[in-house]
Amino acid sequence: MPNASTRPKRGRRNRRAPREDPARNELVSRSLESAQQCLFNQDYGTAFVHYLLVLNLAPVLKDFASESFRFTLFKWADELDSLGRIQDLFDCYEQALELFPTDEVIINSMGEHLFRMGFRDEAAGHFHKALKLKPDYPEAKENFYRVANWLVERWHFLMLNDRKRNHKYQQAIQKAVEGGCNTVLDIGTGTGILGMCAKKTGAAEVYACELSKTMYELACEVVTANGMNGRIKILHMKSLEMEVPKDIPKRVSLVVTETVDAGLFGEGIIESLIHAWNHLLLPPQSTQDPSTPPSQTGRVIPAGATVFGMAVQCLEIRRHHRLCVSEVGGLAMAAAGELHSPVSCSSEDDSTEPYTTERLSRLPGGYTPLTEPFNALDIDFNNVQELEGLCSREVSRVRLPVTGEGLLDALAVWFQLHLDQESSLSTGPMEDTCWEQAIYPVQTPHNFPLRPGDELIVEISCRDAYLRLCSVAVARDGREFRLDDCLDPDQPRNNPGQSGNPKPSLNAEAELCSALACLGTEQSSGPRDYTMLECAEMALLNNQPYHDSFRRALAKLITNLKDARSVQGPSQGEGLEVMPLTDPPSGPMDPGPDPFYVLDVSEGFSVLSLMAASQGQVKAYSSVEKTQHQAVLRRLAKANGVPEEALEFWLNQVEDEQAVLQRPSREKLWSAIILDCVETCGLVRQKLMEKATLARCLLEDGGQIFPERIVLYGMLVESDSLLLESAVQGQEPTLGFNIAPFINQFTVPVHVFLDLSTLQCRHLSGSVELFILDLMNTNANYTNRDVKVQASASGRVTAVPFWYQIHLNEEISVSTFNQDSHWKQAAVVLHQPLEVREGDWVRLAVTLQKSSISISACIEDEAGETGTVDSVRESDQ
Ligand code: 44T
User: Fold this and answer.
1) Cα of 192 to ligand 1 centre, how many Å?
2) What ranges does the record list as Basic residues composition bias (predicted)?
3) pTM of the prediction?
């Protein structure tokens, strides 16, 4: 295979013996022929080698062969990928890029492979490069926007826009530096802001470390742009890897850090500070000898934190973490067994997180406090013994008086960060803060209503450096009822006398009885068996209107198809009660009517295939992949009287070569194909239209794709909060530093995972149809559309949130914007706000390229025409 080292020689030979070399020409043309033949035979590996040879020997053919070469490369790369030959895969891309160094398609595709393999930074670099080469290249744009969110998380913008927070940190640092702490280390510097504060206030030496490559590079750019290059030493490493004198010459007198997440410890601050105290900081000020000057002692900003918790009832949290319905789309759910979200503080399972995060004040439907906020923990970051002892501390139990009535859905947690003795920041739900709160959901499947007079017993511990809060029991009428069966029953209790009594009191009310019927008191059988569903999968399963719509639409289709068959005359075995659910070519035993074939290609866990199978005379194919999820569907099938053979998991058969393509075989085609068209985040699924085109070719006459059509709706809004998380706002420098232009390179125009019902915004128009995607007739689709919308109020249009009406058939549709939805909404944030007056007509130019939407907005003049340059106020994204 030619490689870089052979090229100079080729170059020299080319000069001496150019084109007419007949032997070479012969080789080129034979290789080209072989390449084409191999391509035709789908032998991509050999085709690729031939193409490499051809194009290295005859670069003039590059234009002619580039398309086939790329095609071959991508096919071969996919094969190498599935074979796990990762090094070979990247070698192929390197070779391809030697031939086509500025080919944005190859660069972008290599980025996609890198991304899939978890090399996000490198992937982002490729997408960025592809985009620079071709700024309107939709795939690269979409990819870059997707990774930008990962690389520079949105909270960076929120934090930099939070002036109160910036000033408090600045003041605390200034006071410490002026008080004598003159050597500083900024752990997790992000954009470099706290390190720059320390330098500006006169610290002699400032060091900063940052583990993210993108953020490290950004910090270097920012520090240079602010004239501090060489005056702050930035290291691309995790603080835990830093050593004195290898990375910094000597121990520092001040560590500043904001490596805290909504749950305080999730960014590893405990570990980082223990390490810093042991290896990077000067010894702390001793209480015996408080006269040691600050320059010779160590301290940390923030100095400590107080963690608060509160029990809440919240339907929105509940429906994302546990099953709330007993029936879904006509299927009884009891047989599903226990279903959990992957958020659990009691589980030992590595795939679970102890908490998730939400901004409580913006949760749709709100929340009801069931207890007063309680103090869960106090921690002193300047006391290394306390930090070290945290994880070995006994589990502490607190008894909280219940003050509100309702179901216990979660413990919400927030904290006060004490920057120093005088100043602190709070992340509480009642504050005007950009912070989210940590949510520890309760996953017990029982509905146990708490009421004033009860006591909630919560255990607080610190394991794997995470703070864990677990509601374990409720005390009522002198008895304790366990909430968490996952506790080890063999472990001694603090008060075995009470909780050891297995019998609940006899005078309990009906409500309590039913709740207790399923509540183990002490006879818990140890860790229960449960199946894990992602939060969005859980919310989907709880979405009854969605499943009911599908049930009706499927029933209607099957009825129509049955009618059509009866008009066409009886087919083999028609009318028999028993349906044959063996594969169609199953031979002479096949007595019943042909089943209808339904394929569900939804991503993740979906019961739609089972719902289809439960219609009778249907053979359904599910795309559910996880063995545990398949087991749930099998259990549900059995319990709901669906014959085992009526439901198949086609992904199980992929290895069985052609199995997928053969089904349904004979002349049969699919009666229905269910496509999962909108992602939970609020975007159209990638490659949806390609899938629809393919699906349409596989349908029988009268068959249907679900959904058949999607209509995109949007509205004009003025939302400052969307702006705050999309870019550093305003012309003013951040704390006097020039940061915005650098971080704002990572601004993305489309925001996802929004809750439009609670988004802080003013509506400046009603909702308007933006776009139609016709899945049954993909040729009818367009990529651009101009939409006129009239402003219903004056204001600044900063964004166009959008959502979908998903039409299953002519009559039945579901919206991605309603309170039961498992979907969130998305919004295009305009590059520049557009001033509108009530009654103005705004023209939105909507583009949907691939699955990425872009919208630009401008005012139309009174005649309804787009105005002249002067009269048009224009904004695009
Ligand atoms: N998010 C807050 C968490 N790092 C902030 O790479 C608040 C979330 C949030 N570098 C909504 C609102 C808000 N050594 O760039 C990151 C990270 C880096 C380290 C070197 C270490 N030991 C670490 C640990 C982390 O520090 C930076 C900041 S972490 C802050 C997390 C507005 N949602």
Assistant:
1) 12
2) 7-16
3) 0.83
